[in-house]
Amino acid sequence: MRNKLTLLGGCLLGLLAGCQTQPQVSEWISTTYSQPWQALPTSSITQETAENVIEIDTSKTAQTIEGFGTCFNELGWTSLNLLSGSDRESILNEMFTPGAGANFRICRMPVGANDFSIDWYSYNETEGDFEMKNFSIDNDKETLIPFIHTAKQFNPDIRIWASPWCPPSWMKYNKHYAARQGGEGTDMFIQEDKYMEAYALYFSKFIDAYRAEDIDIFAVMPQNEFNSAQIFPSCCWTAKGLANFVGKYLGPAMEAKGVDVMFGTMERPNVALVDTILQDKDCSRYIKGVGFQWAGKDALPGVHRKYPDMKLYQTEQECGDGKNDWKGALHSWDLMKHYLNNGVSVYTYWNTSLLKGGISHWGWAQNSLVVVDDSTRTYTYTPEYYVMKHASHYVLAGARRIELGGNYNDALCFVNPDKSIVLIAGNSGDTEKKVTINFEGNNYTASLPANSLNTLVINK
User: Fold this and answer.
1) pTM of the model
2) Model confidence pLDDT, tens digit, residues 155-211
3) What is the pLDDT of residues 342-382, one digit of tens each?
4) CA distance linking residue 458 with residue 444, whole number of Å
């Protein structure tokens, strides 16, 4: 009886002191090239201390995560349409249904043609139609709109932002969708008021036309890769030219529609380009965020330090070479660490689905989340899909990134709104590696498989 009373008294004292149970690793998912998304036994986690240590302190939080997503491209839809209806729905369920798979919730789309469209087009190729009387999204009703509608069947709350690769060709000095003349450091868009006004109207017509299709666009960026002269749809601008367009024309037009304007996409390692936008008094009042991709990632740390309250997006995962191999997946993981460790709140993949080989209309082979074999009408998820899913499945909207301590840097960590801890840890070595996670005075040591990516969830 005395032992029972002692035990009861100890429990009551513990409750009065607000004692909590020891946190536990509740889930461990691991991906290798040959064995993606394998559940490993949490019972194999020990309390020993390894040489490699990750320290988690939930008082050291950074940016809030809004979500992860992918891009709606024409070649994504045409490749998925080669599959049976059940296979296509299985993929979109896996990607978009909350809690099912990747949890994609913030996605990108083009305004007109991009490099992974079926061919070149814009919404108005009638030269001199400054009133946009011949504006039409009929092309998109064959591809992008059904793609988005089908995805929204699985998540009606998908948020979509958009950017053009190229304006109507008659609005450019070279009268062509590609960069036949002009280049970086020049304005290829005609710098006259009537063209600027018409282009802002073009954006407004796009917003209205998509709303009529029950697709809301919450934000736009004025130009994809504004420094890059390409053989596919593109248009170079100077930062000064974009500041003028946003400050006097696009910003007011989008404000009237209740649509945010973000600056981007930034593909150069040059903080001064962002300064030109954010320090322009007319333009800066409309800019709600800045988007980075490719070499723009090297400007991201400087922009984050200089403008710590500015919302930052990673706008496009580097696209690979169409091989969809493990080397590409590890590069994607390194990119994810860089972007998230430097303040982005949204992380976006590029091609959702492509045919095997991933070749665009303009001859560029790229990676994708899904590869469709057109000869067998079958599909596979790529290693990069699992890289995305290791974060996006577990890191929920409203999560905060945690600044990690310790000597093991191949990791990212987040605390979800429900207080669960999500640790993503890589091992790019050819042998198993023991890593100790120190959290609230407790050690959890896991042997990470060789060449693997791992997500461990810690719950109290």
Assistant:
1) 0.95
2) 999 999 999 999 999 999 999 999 878 899 999 999 999 999 999 999 999 999 999
3) 999 999 999 999 999 999 999 999 999 999 999 999 999 99
4) 10
Strand 405-406, strand 400-402: pairing: unpaired
Which residues, listed in sequence order, are joined to residue 61 by a DSSP beta bridge? Answer: 402
User: What's the burial of 30, exposed, middle or buried (CB within 10 Å: 0-12/13-18/19+)?
Assistant: buried
Chain centroid to CA 377: how far?
28
Rounded Cα–Cα distance for residues 375 and 391 (Å): 32
Rounded to an integer, what distance in angstroms lies between the CA atom of residue 327 and that of residue 332? 9
- Long-range Cβ pairs for the range 270-279 (8 Å, 24+): 270/299, 271/299, 271/302, 271/303, 271/306, 272/239, 273/227, 273/239, 273/299, 274/239, 274/299, 274/303, 274/307, 275/306, 276/239, 276/240, 276/243, 277/239, 277/242, 277/243, 277/246, 278/307, 278/310
Kindly tell me the sign of the dihedral angle through the C-alpha atoms of 344, 348, 350, 356.
Answer: positive
Query: Which are the contacts of 360, defined by CB distance < 8 A and separation ≥ 6?
Result: 75, 115, 116, 232, 366
Tokens of 156: 């009606």
Name the percent of the chain lying above pLDDT 90.
Answer: 94
Q: What is the CA radius of gyration of the chain?
A: 24
For β-strands 378-381 and 370-373, DSSP reports them as antiparallel
**All residues at 6 or more sequence positions from 85 whose CB lies less than 8 Å from its CB, including other chains:** none
* Tens of pLDDT, residues 52-72: 999 999 999 999 999 999 999
Cα distance between residue 141 and residue 363, in whole Å: 25
Q: Per-residue DSSP letters for 49-69?
A: --SEEEEE-TTSEEEEP-EEE
Cis amide prior to 265 (ω within 30 degrees): yes
What is the distance in angstroms between the CA of the first residue and the CA of the last residue of the chain? 32
Host H or E run for residue 161: strand 159-163
The beta-carbon contacts of 5-9 under 8 Å, at least 24 apart in sequence, are none
**CA gap 305, 54 in Å, rounded:** 25
Residues facing 455 on adjacent strands: 29, 424
Per the DSSP assignment, residues forming a β-bridge with 263 are 290
Identify the band that residue 139 occupies on the pLDDT scale cut at 50, 70 and 90.
Answer: very high
Read off φ and ψ for residue 146, nearest 5 degrees.
-65, -30
Query: Quick check: 13 pLDDT over 70?
Result: no
The pLDDT of residue 410 is above 90: yes
Give the whole-angstrom CA distance, residue 13 versus residue 228.
67
Q: Do 348 and 317 contact (CB within 8 A), yes or no?
A: yes
d(CA 88, CA 95): 11
Residue 183 makes CB contacts below 8 A (sequence gap 6+) with: 229, 236
